[in-house]
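[Protein data]
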Amino acid sequence: MTGYTSRISGFYRGTVDERLDALTEHAGVAGELRSFFAGGGGLSLEAADRMSENVIGVHGLPLGVALNFLVNGVEHVVPMAIEEASVVAAASNAARMVRESGGFHGHATAAIMTGQVQFDGAPDTDGAAARVMAHRDAILGLGDASIPRMVERGFGCRDLDVRVLDAAEGVVVVHVYVDVGDAMGANMVDTVAEAIAPALHELIGGLIGLRILSNLPSRRRVSVRCDVSDSALGGTAVADGVARASRFASLDPYRACTHNKGFMNGLDAAAVALGQDWRSIEAGAHAWAATGGGYRPLSTWKRIPGGLRGEAELPLAVGTVGGSTRAHAGVRAAFELLRVRDARQLAVVLASVGLASNLAALRALAGEGIQRGHMRLHHRKAEECAESEAGTWAK
């Protein structure tokens, strides 16, 4: 094996075996890992039955790899599970353009998840916050006592705040903020919310309502940025068009929704391959886009001398432990291919894939048009599928 790299020239032109050869040479896909991918990388029916309910089979998606990703100076071959061929190709192409200007750069905050404890009919909403905060340390201690193993590893409850949602109806919600380390953290946060609810009830009164995490983890955010040159994009006219399209999204929620869908195309595909809760990721991203009284784009592209700068920020709850990260052989293989050390690095890589997908979509819109590129790939794949089906029936 040569040094691990995501820059593999001509990868898409090879057969599946030739692509695996290239990954063996450049990304360490050898031995059992190669055999797993070569065998289809499927989930066994027995494993599927343990993971879900009323199982009758397994539904497959193509597993591809996005190449050319350089994130904070580190190479990443990114697995993507998606049926849309153009998403993988477009992300790889955009990452190649960005790579020429130094790649993606990003940062993720600590993995602070938000739990909510709801109260209805509280008799004194004006004094609720003061009473709760006077007992802040004791309440956080109760939360920590419910997740002792996480506390032993240096994680646990970090903060509280109190919000009055409707004073007339006595609707109060307490947020508890929990550092969940390298986990997505939903189960831990739910456990903490349940544990502190009785003590909060003594201080707030009324009726205890929901005790559950929020999928808008506003304190668990990732930010990424990149530069791309005019020449890499195809000229100043294309770069100007991307900047105008980005401006359009900042002005119009109808466009912003589709702009954000283009961002999430790549992020979701990588999240699925890596066993993440992509429904939670989607909910948090779009809720974040809607904070502040409107709906805005997750990413922006602005002119800089000689090119564009792209930036994005969003809440992103992902994990490298727990969930299906150990139960699903394909997810384990995807992590081995990606090579990230912890959940924060994973978040930065996923957000970078989103930014690459967004750039590719805007470039297509500003250049040849999105449909032409999409349909070219669709026609090629349709022809290949038709030939394959014809060969199968001929047998």
